Amino acid sequence: MSTGRDEDAPECDLGELDAITRSIEELDAIRRRVINVVGHALRTPVTTIAGMANALGATDDEATRAMLVDGLARNSQRVELLLDDLLLAAGVSTALPAGDAASSSVCDTFAASWSALGGPGDLSVLGPDLSVLARCGAFERIAHVVLDNALKYGHGPIRVSNETTSSGVRIEVESVGDALSDDELEHAFELFYRGEHAVMTAPGLGIGLAVARQLARAEGGEVGLVRRNDAIVATVELPA
Predict the structure, then answer these.
(1) 102 close to 135: Cβ distance less than 8 angstroms
(2) Against a cut of 0.85, is the pTM above it?
(3) Which of 99, 146, 196, 240 is most buried, most CB within 10 Å of its CB?
(4) Weakest-pLDDT range from 75-84, 197-206, 224-233
């Protein structure tokens, strides 16, 4: 009499079942985290755009219309930048900057990013005035990310230096901050990952470092993060 069971079928080990269950739960947690983070990040600018569009259609005042048009443009650019960053961080190559690589001054690029971020005083880059080779927008975005992280999570002065290497230029952005754990350093470049120090210090999406690394690698370089005594050092390597 048949029992309905395939006698030749391998039995599934309980340990394997537990591992499969944990994997499914982890994937579900990642899915919910992505939806939550992206949803919250898009809600504000999209709601603002919808409100401004409605107001624009209801007003005849030219000054008000000009103000609303400017606000619509700024918030649209905000959404566009966020979506580009998400695609870049996820490794979608079509979101990478296009065109030919061009030379950019390390000192000038970091000074401009520092000013745009509202950093205190003037930013000096220690070392010679070197230049890197990258496509338009890539190096500027990398500089913005590493300086923004240093301002958000560091304490006290930020030290930027550059030097030549056998493969190009190495830039270091050093800031004194709370000691990161080995786990935080290991996962710092994962999409949507935010360690305990980051969560407790400032709001964010957890995509900046992932974006910077993808941009650098597309240019033949790299972005890293290391501990050095009581400081956190972001390293940027790019062709000269």
Answers:
(1) yes
(2) no
(3) 146
(4) 197-206
The pair phi, psi for residue 27, each rounded to 5°, is: -65, -40
- Nearest CA to 119 out of 80, 158, 163, 175 is that of 158
Phi, psi of 238 (to 5 degrees): -140, 160
The token pair at 187 is 């996962």
Residue 61 identity (one-letter amino acid): D
Length of the chain: 240
- Of the candidates 82, 87, 198, which has an alpha carbon nearest to the alpha carbon of residue 148? 198
pLDDT-wise least confident of 40-44, 113-117, 133-137, 202-206: 202-206
